[in-house]
Amino acid sequence: MAGMLYLVPTPIGNLGDISQRCRETLEQADFIAAEDTRVSLKLLNHLGIKKSLVSYYEHNKAFKGDQIVQRILAGETCALVSDAGSPAISDPGEDLVKQCAQAGIVVCAIPGPCAAITALSISGQATGRFCFEGFLSTAKKSRREHLDSLKNETRTMIFYEAPHKLSATLEDLAEAFGSDRGISLCRELTKLHEEVIRTTLGQAIGYYQENPPKGEFVLVVAGAPAQETAVASDSDAAARVAQLMQEGMSRKDAVKQTAKELNLPKNVVYDIALSQSEDTICE
Ligand code: SAM
């Protein structure tokens, strides 16, 4: 009979946050797959658990995933842990879960510490609807595309960020959402120096220029106010394209500019502009 894969969340700072069920699962598993075996060994020593560890991380997950799946299919039970928090959430594990599911292996996620949810709960931002955005890419183009796609997002947005990249990220968030947008910066959660600063993007930029950021951060950003997201009508788009073309812009550039200004897809604006010019010819 096939074994199982357990996703075991581990503390994000406070060792007291390991649950009884996580402890028992680690004890009872045949082996533990860990993001960094040295980090997980410290936790296991603290818990007094001796268990065989295999590494499973970003750069070996392709071939290690197959080996783990084979072991589980042969009847072993695997507990997957990451360095801290919930495996598979901005952590290795997503692919292993997919692989196991495809192989018909039962996957069981044990609830427990997760930096995103802990931050959202104490952020003071709206929690009714939210989206998790993980880490922004360091590549300029995909970072800009990611932020552009969020310009009209009305749900609360959750980002992970490392301290040395915080200031640049705050600048980019302010450029995308405006410096008055609310943000809660949740730092060192569950640790001795846990801190939540509830402020605006503009003020946060100033604050961290004076106080260099230290520790781990989750950024919880307020969604766009509903009125900012009013959808531009076809006639708004057509009028703007016509105006820009009258000012000397090519149709292609006018469509591009209008799409950007009204936050509409380029192909939609192109179709509107085209149908408008066809109407003009028909008249
Ligand atoms: N899977 C983990 C989870 O969901 O809790 C997150 C892993 S991700 C690689 C690490 C990021 O989580 C950090 O860069 C930081 O943004 C956030 N994080 C983890 N622990 C934290 C803590 N104690 N306080 C604030 N943020 C934390």
Plain-language structure description:
The protein has 283 residues and is α/β, with parallel strands linked by helices. It has helices at residues 20-28, 37-47, 61-73, 94-102, 115-123, 140-149, 166-177, 201-210, 234-246, 251-262, 266-282, and strands spanning 4-7, 31-34, 53-55, 78-81, 106-109, 130-135, 156-161, 182-187, 195-200, 217-221. The strands form two sheets. A five-stranded parallel sheet has the order 3-2-4-1-5, with helices on both faces. Helix 3 (61-73) crosses helix 4. The mean pLDDT is 93. S-adenosylmethionine binds next to helix 5, strand 7, strand 8 and strand 10.
Number of helices: 11
Looking across the biggest beta sheet, what order are the strands in? 3-2-4-1-5
Distance from N terminus to C terminus (CA atoms, Å) equals 75 Å
Helix-and-strand structural type: alpha/beta
Bound small molecules, deduplicated: S-adenosylmethionine
How many extended strands? Answer: 10
Radius of gyration: 24 Å
Poorly predicted runs are none
Give a summary of the structure in a few sentences.
This protein is an alpha/beta fold and 283 residues long. The chain contains eleven helices and ten strands. The site of S-adenosylmethionine has 24 residues, from α5, β7, β8 and β10.
